[in-house]
Amino acid sequence: MASCFRIKRNMDIRPLSPELQAKAIAELNEDPKRIPEDIKYIKEWLLKQPHLKPRTDDQFILTFLRGCKFSLERTKEKLETYFTMRSLLPEYFKNRDPFDPKMQELLKAGTYLPLKSSGPDTPKGFLMSLKNWDMSTTSMSDLMKLTYMIMDIVINEDDQAVIAGIIALQDGTGIEMKHMMAMTPSLVKKSAMLFQDAYPNRPKAMHYFNPPSFIETIFNLFKPFMKEKLMKRWHIHNTKNINDMYEFFPKSILPEEYGGDAGKIQEIIDYWKNKVESYADWYKDDEKYGCDESKRPGKPKTSAELFGIEGSFRKLNVD
Asked: Cβ(261)–Cβ(252) under 8 Å?
């Protein structure tokens, strides 16, 4: 821990617990003594990019270094993509007001909830559910906007999620064909690229509990845009028995409604509603970071180029 505290005095980064520090060293190629040099290198590179309007605080850069296992080239690529996509997806990253009625409605619905961790160095759990989502008043783009508002809080604050990775539980209760129809190929591609190419995530597994009958159609919708490694981490549980999930999601991190010991789901919803609202000023300030395509060396990038669906998109059969 001595090295962590020495870095803390010299740089604006959080010290890690012994368990997380050991995991970062073993799994992410982290060398505490080299962190200041790596952060300095990435910061200098960011400031030399004429088209980027980057956030350059030490903790932010360190998060991306960890998410890229301290590969400097991968870190540069991911940061470039992160700031580019923030400007090319204004529907997700502009006017992020937690008190907007649509965001308030989705926050109260609990569509995307970070959970507790089961140990000091275990993956961070997330619970996703659409059963309280009212499609008549909010759109899939609204839902995606809130998801990344919450994800920004996670990468800003939660070193365990960044270092140990994340596991997600999608509750299929209440998912209907209308939900699937809202997931256009373009929207799916945007979501996949953001999650895989722009954010410093370490996805460990995605579990689908109580899936709808057309789960294979949903799976096939995402498949063309997901990396093979991530697709292999999808697990579909064709059962309504929550006991099947405890092998992967300990009761200690699940809310009472799922047979867990982590309090009522409304308490988790209330916590994250307050947390997101507390970031209101941060979201306003965050809008100044992104990319100015008119200053990009070479050919500017466009939303159509990045997110357009090229070629023929295979028609999906729906049972």
From this structure: yes
DSSP-derived letter for residue 297 is S
The answer to whether 175 and 141 have CB atoms below 8 angstroms apart is no
Residue with the two structure tokens 């395509």: 293
Residue type, position 199, single letter? Y
pLDDT at 97 (0 to 100): 98
Specify the residue for token string 């028995």: 241
Q: How many CA atoms lie within 13 A of 132 on its CB side?
A: 14
Tell me whether strands 52-53 and 112-117 are parallel, antiparallel or unpaired: unpaired
Question: How much is the pLDDT for 208?
Answer: 79
What residue spans of the chain are helical by DSSP H? 2-10, 18-28, 35-47, 58-67, 72-88, 90-93, 101-109, 140-157, 159-164, 177-182, 185-193, 215-222, 228-231, 265-278, 280-286, 303-307
Query: What is the distance between the alpha carbons of residues 168 and 172, in angstroms, rounded to a whole number?
Result: 12
Instruction: Specify the DSSP element, H or E, that contains 291.
Output: strand 290-291
Distance, in Å, from the CA atom of 155 to the CA atom of 162, rounded to the nearest integer, reads 7
DSSP secondary structure string for all residues of 18-67: HHHHHHHHHHH---GGGHHHHHHHHHHHHHT-TTEE----HHHHHHHHHH
Distance, CA of 221 to CA of 140 (rounded, Å): 15
Q: Give the residues of the chain that fall short of pLDDT 50.
A: 1-9, 310-319
* Beta bridge partners of residue 135, listed in sequence order: none
Cα–Cα distance for residue pair 157/154, rounded to 1 Å: 5
Tell me the three state secondary structure of residue 202.
coil
Cβ(134)–Cβ(105) under 8 Å? yes
- Please state the pTM of the whole predicted model: 0.86
Tokens 């799916």 appear where? 188
CA neighbours within 13 Å on the CB side: how many for 245?
30
Which residue, 250, 176, 245, 249, is CA-closest to 213? 176
Q: Can you tell me the distance from the alpha carbon of 76 to that of 112, in angstroms, rounded to the nearest whole number?
A: 29
